[in-house]
Specification:
By secondary structure, this protein is of the alpha+beta class. The chain has 2 domains: about 20-185, Roll (Mannose-Binding Protein A, Chain A), CATH 3.10.100; about 200-349, Mannose-Binding Protein A, Chain A, CATH 3.10.100.10. The chain has helices at about 50-65, 80-85, 105-110, 145-150, 215-230, 270-275, 310, and strands spanning about 20-25, 25-30, 35, 70, 90, 100, 130, 155-160, 170-175, 180-185, 200-205, 235, 255-260, 295, 315-320, 335, 345-349. A hairpin with a 5-residue loop joins strand 5 and strand 6. The chain is globular and about 60 Å long. About 50% of the residues are buried.
Length: about 350
């Protein structure tokens, strides 16, 4: 496999006033920048300038005893959000888990954990997760409430439970809608360093699965990608049938599943199968981070009726998930006819 060039440390645990530091083995390193989503929501159409949003970020950081300079991730017609972070690198969440290293990583989707924790290290959950950005997925200006100057009609929002693409740009909504803000510390240039977790491996296929050959064909696609990526081990497709759950294809004891960059998907195998996902399974067998759709059948713990007749016919319908999300959309984003090819998830036995 083409290895992802990452050395990572999962740093610390979430608590009030926590300031994460990068580690490499037992050797200390300088503290990383911190990024969080605000615990409070705001109506961007009432701002008078981006400086108002920066002041909110500084206030939230101060309340959580986080030192440093924090700016809001917002784009306007004069300054792109990505330019507001220029000259800085290495961002961790408030629980110390890695978010992203370089700007080019951030906007290429090479994100490790979703930025769904607030300034106190608390998970905002899977409701009310819209975050005002005014930014397209590449960090440049889009719909921005007229520069967040108190007028204008629409703004781009991101989804705090998402990573690649969707974290910054998932929808365009009214400027009258209340939304959270992303707050990024700036000024530090320490590379993000973390220790990869070991466990059973998982990936999303780079090639697309065409319904018609049943589970055997799906498993064959997983095996093909394992061989092409020079991986070892036995992998099977994470798909249900009308009589058996996807979870029943795997042991739910033992190590949890991890992406190929060493990021664990969930705390335990059962948590993953219950869709309590900490990081999305959006890394392919060849190291590509993507936001595309994937066949899931909509449920991992029970048989499913919408399985394209156990993945043998293209004349019925099924359910697709969104690989870059960690909310319910991870398994169930939309319905789809079975006649279009999509990726599948492959898990090590």
């Amino acid at each position: 496999m083409r290895c992802i060039a990452v050395c990572v440390a999962l740093l610390g645990c979430g608590r009030f006033g926590f300031e994460p530091t990068g580690t490499s083995g037992d050797a200390p390193a300088a503290r990383t920048n911190i990024a969080f989503v605000t615990s409070t929501t705001h109506v961007p159409g009432t701002f008078t300038s981006v400086a108002d949003a920066d002041a909110i970020c500084m206030a939230r950081a101060s309340e959580a005893n986080l030192s440093g300079t924090f700016v809001a991730f917002l784009s306007t017609g004069t300054t792109a959000a990505r330019d507001r972070l220029a000259g800085s690198r290495g961002w961790s969440r408030t629980d110390g888990k890695p978010f992203a290293d370089r700007l080019e990583d951030l906007f290429a989707g090479r994100i490790y954990y979703p930025l769904r924790l607030d300034e106190h290290g608390l998970d905002i959950g899977t409701t009310g997760q819209y975050v005002a950005t005014g930014s397209r997925g590449d960090g440049t200006d889009g719909a921005d409430c007229n520069g967040f100057a108190g007028s204008g009609t629409t703004m781009i929002v991101g989804n705090a439970t998402g990573t690649t693409g969707f974290w910054a740009d998932v929808n365009t909504v009214s400027c009258a809608m209340s939304a959270r803000l992303y707050c990024f510390e700036v000024g530090r240039t320490q590379p993000l360093v973390f220790q990869p977790t070991t466990g059973r491996r998982a990936f999303v296929t780079e090639q697309l699965f065409t319904v018609g050959g049943g589970l055997a064909a799906a498993d064959a696609l997983c095996t093909s990608e394992v061989q092409l990526a020079s991986l070892t081990g036995s992998f099977h497709a994470l798909l249900p049938t009308m009589t058996a759950s996807a979870a029943s294809r795997f042991a739910l004891t033992g190590p949890t599943w991890v992406r190929l960059d060493g990021i664990p998907l969930a705390d335990t195998p059962l948590a993953f199968m219950s869709a309590t996902v900490r990081a999305p399974l959006n890394l392919s067998s060849i190291g590509s981070y993507d936001l595309g759709l994937v066949y899931t059948g909509g449920n991992l713990l029970a048989p499913a009726s919408g399985t394209c007749a156990d993945w043998t016919t293209t004349t019925s319908n099924t359910t697709l998930g969104r690989r870059s999300l960690t909310d319910g959309g991870f398994l169930n984003t939309t319905g789809s006819p079975c006649n279009a090819p999509y990726s599948i998830f492959c898990l090590e036995d």
